[in-house]
Design brief:
The protein has 209 residues and is mainly α. The protein contains twelve helices and no strands. The longest helix is centred in the C-terminal third of the chain and has 18 residues. It is elongated.
């Protein structure tokens, strides 16, 4: 099963997604009963990798079933955000933007963060003002001096918020801006990773004060 996971990841890295599905399915067939308890990392890796490859080959129903199972056994927010990343991509690809938004809100709730489903302009302006207050007297260029983000769970949340932007945009523009504000506030607090660019750039692109 471990060799199948390695082979599946290797095939996935070369975009041979259908081949990866076969390797990963073979690995799953070798898992013992109660595998998430006895061999959690192996089982979770097989389910998550196969879910992504199923999604990338059009097996949407299979991918969602695998993600549901992975989420049921996820141990922490690092693993939960990894599931949400794939789920939101899948739902957005299917055009199920409302479900993608609900998934995004559920992911935020893991971190005790919220967004109204139909934000007002006043709420958007308040979120923007909060960012200005957090930035203080620092110039915009000071963002370059923020530390590298090391909290993997927060990094996963930033990735989720970046991936969710399309669904949010087509559902409610104010939702998109609030998500972007969350990204910037998280970056100011925890540091920068690559996906933080989607927050900084998005704030300048979408916010109209």
């Amino acid at each position: 099963a471990e060799l199948s996971l390695t082979a599946g990841r290797k095939a996935k890295s070369t975009t041979a997604y259908a081949i990866a599905v076969r390797y990963l399915a073979a690995g799953m067939s070798l898992l013992p009963a109660a595998s998430f308890a006895a061999h959690h990392d192996l089982a979770f890796g097989l389910f998550l990798e196969r879910a992504q490859c199923e999604y990338l080959t059009g097996g949407f129903a299979q991918a969602e079933a695998l993600l549901d199972e992975a989420m049921r056994h996820a141990r922490d927010n690092i693993e939960r955000t990894a599931v949400y990343e794939i789920l939101i991509q899948l739902l957005t690809t299917k055009g199920e933007n409302a479900r993608a938004v609900e998934a995004t809100l559920s992911c935020l709730a893991l971190f005790d963060l919220t967004m109204p489903r139909e934000p007002t302009e006043e709420q958007v302006r308040q979120a923007y003002d909060d960012i200005r207050a957090a930035l203080g007297d620092r110039p915009i260029e000071a963002l370059l001096d923020l530390p590298v983000l090391t909290d993997r769970a927060i990094g996963g949340l930033l990735n989720v918020l970046l991936i969710a932007q399309s669904a949010l945009m087509f559902t409610n523009g104010n939702l998109l801006v609030l998500a972007i504000c969350h990204m910037v506030r998280l970056s100011l607090r925890y540091g920068n990773i690559a996906s933080a660019i989607g927050g900084y750039g998005g704030l300048g692109t979408w916010y109209v004060g």
